[in-house]
Design a protein that fits this description.
Elements: E1 3-9, H1 13-24, E2 32-38, H2 46-49, E3 57-61, H3 66-76, E4 81-84, E5 90-91, H4 95-105, E6 111-120, E7 123-125, H5 139-144, E8 153-156, H6 157-163, H7 174-183, E9 189-200, H8 214-225, H9 231-254, H10 258-277
Parallel strand pairs: 1-2, 1-4, 2-3, 6-9
Antiparallel strand pairs: 4-8, 5-9, 6-7, 6-8
């Protein structure tokens, strides 16, 4: 297996050094390490000069977002498998080796992820039960929330040829969008070992930048409806659309954003009618 590691980064010199070192320290070495700088300030790039003699490939672009940075890495990569690593995360030394061994045992699987350790503001936390990693056909689970972490995944490039890459029109939830498109058509392998350290709580995370992240998830779900889905999957998409649109309508109402509240209320009603036409009933589960 020829693996290209893609590390997108933007003004994270300290974290970037840790991320790159964690790849260089892997028991199984990748074919190449690609760092895509998404418009960092010059001083933030100084760390890359330290790796000039270690074969790190660096590509620079204007600030276009993490989706464009990851897509650039995919486009220039030479490997037949892609492994992403966000620059604020890092790998334990056996990560790539375990995934390679897994795919040797299960060559029919074209995507896998490992389990992970969560750190928030430097403190280890335990994920809630509904965040626990799953394998197999996990489309239904992916409807509710992001069930795959970019830094934990290994993907055969054939998948991108079929379903496309990251949606650069989405300023956030771009990974949720991609995993949904993948899980719709492919089973996901799981290596049930904590081989990635995923960090959170810092100020430049996208999850803290935008209000109402479900706005972007709704766009992803609406795109899914444009595909040919079987009735069960379509009803699942509609059910989640109703719930997320209703929550956004309520949140907008509380903010006195009445126009936006009306928009999402109309969406909720539209998808409720579509669900009923398919013979389904809105489950009205509480959002965890």
């Amino acid at each position: 297996m020829k693996i290209s590691v893609v590390i997108p980064t933007h003004n994270r010199e300290k974290e970037l050094r840790r991320a790159i070192d964690s790849v260089l320290n892997q028991a199984a070495k990748p074919e190449e390490i690609i760092v895509v700088d998404d418009g960092s300030e010059e001083e933030a790039l100084d760390v890359l000069h330290e790796y000039n003699e270690k074969g790190i490939k660096v590509f620079r672009q204007l600030n276009r977002g993490v989706s464009a940075a990851r897509n650039k890495g995919i486009e220039v990569s030479k490997g037949d498998w892609i492994s992403f690593l966000d620059s604020d995360d890092w790998w334990l030394p056996g990560k790539l080796e375990e995934q390679i061994n897994f795919h040797v045992r299960f060559p029919e699987l074209l995507i896998s992820q490992t389990d992970e350790i969560w750190l928030r503001n430097g403190v280890r936390i335990n994920p809630r039960k509904y965040h626990l990693k799953r394998g197999g056909w996990i489309f239904d689970l992916c409807l509710e929330r992001c069930m795959i972490t970019p830094s934990a995944v290994l993907i055969n490039k054939r998948i991108f040829e079929e379903i496309g890459m990251f949606d650069e029109c989405l300023p956030a939830c771009e990974d949720y969008d991609l995993w949904l498109r993948i899980a719709h058509k492919y089973p996901v392998g799981l290596i049930d070992e904590k081989l990635v350290v995923k960090t959170g709580g810092h100020s430049d995370q996208l999850s803290g930048k935008y209000w109402g992240m479900d706005r972007f998830r709704i766009k992803s779900l609406e795109k899914l409806l444009e595909n040919t889905l079987d009735a069960e999957k379509e009803m699942g998409v509609l059910d989640v659309l109703i719930r997320k649109a209703s929550i956004l309508a309520q949140g907008s109402q509380k903010r006195n954003e009445l126009e936006r509240a009306g928009l999402y209320q109309l969406k909720a009603e539209k998808y409720r009618l579509a669900l009923e036409r398919l013979g389904g009933t809105y489950k009205n589960k509480s959002q965890s």
